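Exercise 3.2. Students should predict the tertiary structure of the chain below and write it as structure tokens, then compare their answer with the key that follows.

Predict this chain's 3D structure.
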Amino acid sequence: MDPLSITGFTLTAIDTLWKVSEKTAELVSNFRDFDHDTKVLETRIRDDNARTRALRQLLFDPSSIYHGRTLFEHFDPEVQNHIHLFFEQAIGIIEQAYQLLCRRQAVSSTGEADSEGSISRSSTPSANFLTPLSHDSDLNLSYTHEISKKSSRTFQRIRWSLLDKKRVEAIVRDFSEVNKRIYDNIELWCLSTSVGVDLQHLKHLESDTSSRTLGFDIDAKLQLATSTEENSPWTYEIQQNEETRQALLSVVPVESKFGIVQWDSKPMLVEYRSYAPESPVSVDIDTRTKDLVNRLAKLLHQPKGVVFRTPSCWGWARQIHFNRVAFMFSIPEGSEAQPRSLYHVLGSGSQPPALGQRFTLALQLARCISHLQLVKWVHKSFRSENILFFPPKLENSQELPSGSQECLNFSEPWVLGYEFSRPESFFSQGQSDRSPTLDVYRHPERQGRPTQFFSKIHDIYALGVVLLEIGLWQQATSLEKSGFTKVRDPYAIKKQLVRNAEKRLASKMGEKYKQAVLKCLENGFNVVDDSREDLRLQQAFRSQVINVLEDAAKCI
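Answer key:
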């Protein structure tokens, strides 16, 4: 297909999708007085249709940003074809519901017409001997007609409740899933193709009405935050006085690197980052590290979707006497300020949570990594020590059981530990900090003194290790009798992790979960000739890991 043809075909497809969806919602509305679920079903279709309308405007409204052309025309032919096929797939699904409802409406209309016809025929007087109907007869016929209509409506209600409703709900559920994947992929193409490196394009996504309706502006703003000049005049350092210094000295420690502090009469989460761990004396933070810390605080301060699973950062404070900085985070809303890390929970010997919670936990973490990569940020320290759970806030009279894991919601992880994060554009060679506890989560290329750029696959590898821990419900370091302290070969560590995944995961989490973990650990995505933005890797990760976890979580 030439570009003009694919543009026209895709525009026709998206318009057809909108029209069929709108008609389907109207047909469903005929049954909405039957039950509340049907009203929800109608609303769901209309919400999906509103998203379709916004996508049409974003993709096909000409803009000066694109030199009078459309965003769709700026995508390469492969992406254009994917978008076209997605919309055709969505049409095929929603048409099933539309055709079913049309047939049902036709049957109902025929039934009512037959009923009215029979009443009319029974009321026709005989040509030879029937006298005209009396007033009482008119009332009887009216009553009979009303009873017939009620009977027909009752039959419709029964048929809808027992047969049609379940079928339409299943179709709409599939339709919504395809719509979500259309949405996710178009956002990926907006931010992770060659178009996504254009600052004017990102600013357009940040301000455009349809983009804001879709929520694309949030991630565009985050990507802009990583793309701005390094030496920003704005600082997120918290200016200290005696009161703030005393508050930072009164932090209640949480495990080894976190704490809770009372700040402006409310609890805050503190996370520490050492900037000179080898120095025997107190030293101030150097200019380059200070700038990096400030950039990180800036990114973590930006409004983010919940998919990032990261609390909002208020700023950072230096603690020169400890050679460290303290990042300040808000406590997630509705949570008690008593966090526990996944690493701590795994080592406590507690019973694993329900299978559904573990799949949801794995899915939330995979989505987090995917979205970090979407805005061109890498975590670099993704491990179970940096994944926190907060108990839900209880009533005033209640207290949390000491040391209990039962009160934790494992479906709501919060990811921190961005202490060594960089935007992808930074070269992150770093110093050697060999540690078995840390190396077990690091890709073999990133252990010891790394000489390569940190890339997306390195974070995906770390995710694979954490998913292995979740599946086996034990710390990764416990998978080797010495805790990997005697294992010097980085590839031997990886081999041991892969062996445990191959032998033990399927019986605990299923074959598909095992395969998803192995793809992360072994880079089994079969991606070749990828773009500079690693678009194919991101697509493969979504389809072979995230979508697999999504489908599995729904079935449990």
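Discussion points: Residues 135-192 form the longest helix (58 residues). The chain has three domains: 3-121+137-226, 231-331, 338-556.
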